[in-house]
């Protein structure tokens, strides 16, 4: 299965979470590629808020996503930070660019999953995950829900994985998220075979 993981990240948390999922797919023998969603203001934000410049530089080495990159993928993963209870404007720009495929239903029948990061539980990560699936449904993409027992003892929303970074973004994805992404990769592969 060809998997495209499309990520927008500035602080690095969404990138790290998505990179964990890519690794989990590759550990299962899947063809998984990370794509960076364009952000012309990203470097300025990294500089202004004194974010991890080395991690952002690593992120910038990813191929920049275009709407055409969605076409060859069997499964799509969209990963966005949560901004005001929604996906970032940059992720929405990628979604809008894919509108050219809507009339011919060129993405219909593909599957997708969603990841999001937010500062706190009040940040609206669930709404951002839902926004990803709303886009997918309009395009005919089949959403893969997350079962409540995917990882026993961990509460996960049905819409995808989310990670709370702390108000200052300093809480990086760790062991719990590695467990979640590994379980999610196995679940997605099982559901799409």
Describe the secondary-structure layout.
Blueprint: E1 2-7, H1 13-27, E2 31-36, H2 42-48, H3 53-60, E3 75-81, H4 89-97, E4 111-118, H5 125-138, E5 142-143, E6 161-164, H6 175-192
Parallel strand pairs: 1-2, 1-3, 3-4, 4-5, 4-6
Helix pairs in contact: 1-6
- The total beta strand count reads 6
N- to C-terminal distance: 9 Å
Helix content: 25-40%
Question: Which structural class fits the helix and strand makeup?
Answer: alpha/beta
> What string gives the helices and strands in order?
EHEHHEHEHEEH
Largest sheet: 6 strands, parallel
Radius of gyration: 15 Å
Q: Could you give me the name of the CATH homologous superfamily?
A: Flavodoxin domain
CATH class: Alpha Beta
How many domains in all?
1
CATH architectural name: 3-Layer(aba) Sandwich
Which geometry do the CA atoms define?
Answer: globular
Count of DSSP helices?
Answer: 6
Describe this structure in a few short sentences.
This protein has a single domain (2-192), classed as Flavodoxin domain (Rossmann fold, 3-Layer(aba) Sandwich). The protein has six helices and six strands, in the order βαβααβαβαββα.
What characteristics describe this protein?
6 helices; alpha/beta; Rossmann fold; 17% strand; 193 residues; single chain
Describe the protein in words.
The chain has a single domain, classed as 3-Layer(aba) Sandwich (Rossmann fold), CATH 3.40.50. It contains six helices and six strands. The chain has helices at residues 13-27, 42-48, 53-60, 89-97, 125-138, 175-192; strands spanning 2-7, 31-36, 75-81, 111-118, 142-143, 161-164. Strands 1, 2, 3, 4, 5 and 6 form a six-stranded parallel sheet that branches. α1 packs across α6 (175-192). The protein is globular and about 45 Å long. 46% of the residues are buried.
